[in-house]
Amino acid sequence: MTVTVDCLVIGAGVVGLAVARRLALGGRDVVLVDEADAIGTQTSSRNSEVIHAGIYYPRGSAKARHCVAGRQMLYRYCSDRAIDHQRIGKLIVATDSDQLARLDAIAAAAAANGVDDLRLLNRDDLASIEPGLDCAGALHSPSTGIIDSHGLMRGMRRDAEDAGATTALRTKATGGHIGRGQLAVELDGTAISCRTVVNAAGLGAWDVARGIEGVPPETIPRRFLAKGSYFVLESGRVPFSQLIYPVPVGGGLGVHLTLDLAGQARFGPDVQWTDRIDYHVDAARADQFHAAIRRYWPGLPENSLVPAYCGIRPKLSGPGDGDSDFLIQGPAAHGTPGLVNLFGIESPGLTSCLSIAEAVASIVDDR
Question: Residue ranges of the FAD dependent oxidoreductase domain (predicted)?
Fold first, then answer.
């Protein structure tokens, strides 16, 4: 027997939850599924938990648009729902005078994206604000923040279910096909006929898309995996009150210092290109972390870092290719009625989740 549902959302990470919430609040009958036994077990819970301002991304890109809009939506949502967060601010630091021009370029890119609250600080300014830093200058971003990502995900799940959505964990999409104008998706061997399918499976989005017979293979982009490890101090606390970021590096934002809501510091992520999903943190990488961190915090104690966790970022570009964008792919791109694929939703995906959900709803509503 074939079960029929209105809207199936595959993937209960932060973006899938935001999409399910938005569609349910819009009156859609939503079923949200994930193969894991809990929500948000992959990229959504293996990141820096930072609310990004929207600084680095190319003007007009999906990342720029959704990060700036999503940041504003996220702060409002957290305030309305009493979800723990803090507008803590961050410093993007130039570790020597040669990098000062990079700060000017970053500020110009941010302004083009509508982020107009950055302030350039010199060495003396930094000495009074964060005396532990040794830097030639920095950009201060007051709209950068931190968030309890698990609290956010629980809140969005609660909103979705209060609006009538159903969540099914330990449920895997194992295939599908197009028939009679509707999509049929197999969930653990049970055929589900769907008016709409949103593929928000994160690292698994490529497998879901390839498993649906009739989706043109040439519309499924290549996937690259960037592993990022995090380290923490073995003991003690850092002498900083806000986030510290170096100027960006290829594939990521450099080994930065973030604080959680309890004030504990995390360092990372670095960038390791890989071809498999592996969450082991190599303790030997601590030496590289020490070297990177000491460029802006020379007071980091020797041999003080211990492995914490790592995440895998699904990217649409690989080593040396430059930064990739979000890909929100509707029927106009792949020709499959009722299907929306979300590819390459990495950082700033958490910040952008509510805005991405609005974009998905617009595609679904157009149908």
Answer: 6-362
